Amino acid sequence: MYFLMKKTNLIILIIVATCLGLVSSEISLERKMVVKSANHYLFFTLTDIAVDESGNIYIADEKGKTLLKLDISGKLLHRTVSKKGEGPGDLPGAIRWIRCGDGKVYLGFRRYFAIQVYNDELNFQYKISLNRRVMDLAVRDGMLYIPNLYTNIDFPVRILMDPGEGIAVNSQNQLPSADQIAAHRWGNWLTLTVDREHNIFTARLFTDRIEKWNREGAQLWSTHLFDGHSVRLKNGRPDFPRSFYYTDIARDSRDNIYVLAGSRAQNPRRDIYVLSPKGKHLITLTLPQTSNFIRIDGNNRLYVRGGIGKDVVIKYQIKNLVD
After folding, report:
1. Which of 97, 128, 149, 261 is the most exposed place for a label (fewest CB within 10 A)?
2. Cis before residue 268, ω within 30 degrees of 0?
3. What does DSSP say about strands 271-275 and 138-140: parallel, antiparallel, or unpaired?
4. What is the tens place of the pLDDT at every residue in 23-46?
């Protein structure tokens, strides 16, 4: 039902910057595993993945309307197949992302204003209805952190309490209103991660800015790696897909921050910028293949896509991290 390859060869990434502290100048990735579809039996399309602290992999398959859970070795543990519709557990629209945290799995959609919640065996539990699009999600101790796309305040994150099971929800399709579209702030499109103290790290997609915030909304630091500007809009929109400064963010066990570069980088969607918890740029690594996501589990294993458009997950062990 699945195709799995294991490799133990050590892959030394291209080092573009000099190590300045928490990361060794000989940082490398040891390729541990490759998971990919074989004859479309495992999954049809690799829409997005999530990894938990133990290294279990959750895959969202948009084309197959399927959610999968694989263990640390790549063995299939659970599979949930849903139809498109409005019933409990049905998929109301195209999947945008999958995330996990607190023993739950969260599913977000491209044009549907809700989050669907599953247990770690991928059984549907409940739906959280919202009044706005959810571009990304981080989960920590029952709190949900999402980008706030429709605000003029400096703090670009909305913090909600996970309401849990048994809540009343609105199952109707909720699309953006004209007022919401008018108030939409492209500068607030961002990806985020949250540490154990509930500090929030954000990387903005269309603005050259990486930031750290506390949960009260105070900015702890801000940095940039390019020109410090925002992209110019054409007819009120960024020039997709050539406008991205950054595309994803992740955090290792030492709270170093990993930011996947966008189209402005020397190596688009291959360069990974490693920053210290205080925002100091430590090193730039270059993947051998493009990816539209990076994930890191509790044992500092890095998960990437094996090339844009390819339905392959590659897992590496991050080597030579030092305190």
Report:
1. 128
2. no
3. unpaired
4. 444 667 788 888 876 544 566 678
